[in-house]
Design a protein that fits this description.
Elements: E1 5-14, E2 17-18, H1 20-28, E3 34-35, E4 46-47, H2 60-64, H3 78-83, H4 89-105, H5 112-115, E5 117-122, H6 128-140, H7 150-154, H8 158-167, E6 173-176, H9 182-195, E7 201-208, H10 213-222, E8 245-253, H11 254-259, E9 266-275, H12 285-299, E10 307-310, H13 319-331, E11 339-341, H14 344-347, H15 354-368, E12 370-371, E13 393-394, E14 399-406, E15 410-418
Helix pairs in contact: 4-8, 9-15, 12-13
Length: 419
């Protein structure tokens, strides 16, 4: 390890609202965003923006205009906005969260953005809304052409590319896609990029825009969506709930952050990855445990050090018991010293963005010394015996462990430290 990796900026947008402040206040207060879609999805519930306009055309008019309603745009060169072209919701979310994070870090228009900054974003899929609109024109309306910006707007690399255009970043701009672990992978690989001296600053996180008719139908057909709400580690849990949005963090080398007098919000201290190599959708306990151990080893933090654990906690029949078993396998009796939260119960499963927003909210929880509650819990499940936080409580460890486990058996675990 050649560089400590510090966190100096945060930004997010989710079903809970726009900005880190409102997201944290609602999570801390136990105020979730999960509610029925209007018009209703087939047997489904989804996390959506709490705004009257979310009822218009399935909420798409609100979400497409999200970036352009941001007050942060007043500090951006209008010519840069013009160059972005047509934005899918996927990019709109990423740009809003990225702009908030960079502004929060005090790096907007900073010289470091030109050469010594990289962007790494994770996305589980590309621009679903743009693709489905094109297919509707072709296959339903019988038209022969689609919007000329369909391909550049829908490609999975669009959010990272458009964020680089918005901010003037000329360094490496990369997109990682590891399903539900995508943004956790992006943060971990960004950490390694800074450690290796390849960049002074990395803008990293993820985005997802999966609340479209086609995407929702696919998830519903898989049989994993709850008909009511998300109940992580609870008895009578019935599945996951889809959400969407973005979360972005600004990572800096210790040297660079201190040289410019940056306010330090925390440290990204460890990253562990593994592949189950077992099953496409069923998690493997040892694969999960391997990633948790690797993250602790990378951070140099013992498993008996009290930690706030931000669980993957999807509320599904298979994932929750496997994650609980893996934590018992790794931590043993020391698990009693930790506290487990599961913020998907508030903002839904944001797929490619979920690892980043969970790490972000966990980092704020460390800073505030408050563990936010797991929502919608109906009672203990003997297969998910964990020290869950069911009501907000004071808890002030120095360590955050954030779990992300994806279809394909792709596991990523991040370890953070309090500032």
């Amino acid at each position: 390890m050649t560089n400590r990796v510090l966190i100096t900026g945060l930004g997010c947008v989710s079903g809970l609202g726009r900005g880190v402040g409102v997201n944290w206040e609602r999570v801390r207060g136990g105020d979730g965003a999960i509610r029925p879609l209007e018009p209703p999805a087939p047997e489904g519930i989804a996390a959506w923006f709490d705004d009257d306009k979310a009822h218009e055309a399935g909420g798409q008019s609100l979400q497409r205009s999200a970036l352009h309603r941001s007050a942060l745009l007043g500090n951006v060169d209008p010519e840069r906005l013009r160059r972005l072209g047509k934005l899918d919701r996927l990019s709109s979310f990423a740009l809003e969260a990225g702009l908030e994070a960079v502004t929060h870090a005090g790096l907007l228009a900073h010289p470091a953005l030109v050469q010594r900054t990289a962007i790494l974003l994770g996305c589980g899929s590309g621009g679903n809304g743009t693709i489905e609109t094109a297919y509707e024109r072709l296959f339903a309306a019988g038209q022969s052409r689609v919007h000329p910006q369909t391909i550049p707007s829908s490609m999975i690399a669009a959010p990272a590319a458009q964020l680089s255009m918005l901010l003037g970043v000329h360094g490496p701009v990369l997109t990682l896609s590891g399903a539900c672990a995508s943004s956790a992978q992006a943060l971990g690989e960004a950490m390694h990029m800074i450690r290796a001296g390849r960049a002074d600053v990395v803008i990293a996180g993820g985005a997802e825009a999966c609340l479209t008719r086609g995407s929702l139908t696919g998830w519903q057909s898989l049989g994993v969506l709850a008909p009511d709400t998300c109940r992580p580690f609870s008895r009578d849990r019935r599945g996951m709930v889809l959400g969407e949005g973005a979360a972005v963090l600004v990572l800096e080398s210790e040297r660079h952050a201190h040289a410019r007098g940056a306010r330090v919000l925390g440290e990204l201290a460890g990253y562990g990855v593994s592949s189950d190599a077992t099953h496409m959708t069923a998690p493997d306990v040892e694969g999960i445990a391997s990633a948790i151990r690797a993250a602790h080893e990378d951070a140099g933090i013992g498993i008996d050090t009290p930690a706030l654990v931000s669980a993957h906690g999807t509320g599904t029949a298979l994932n929750d018991p496997a994650e609980a078993a893996a934590m018992h396998r790794v931590y043993g009796p020391a698990l009693a010293h930790h506290r487990v939260i599961a913020t998907k119960s508030a903002h839904g499963h944001m797929i490619g963005a979920t690892g980043a927003i969970e790490f972000l909210l966990g980092l704020v929880a460390l800073s505030e010394g408050i563990a936010p509650p797991v929502l919608n819990h109906l009672g203990p499940d003997p297969d998910c015996d964990l020290p869950l936080v069911l009501a907000a409580q004071e808890f002030a460890p120095d360590v955050l462990v954030s779990n992300s486990f994806a279809f394909g058996g792709l596991n990523a675990v991040l370890v953070g430290r309090r500032a």
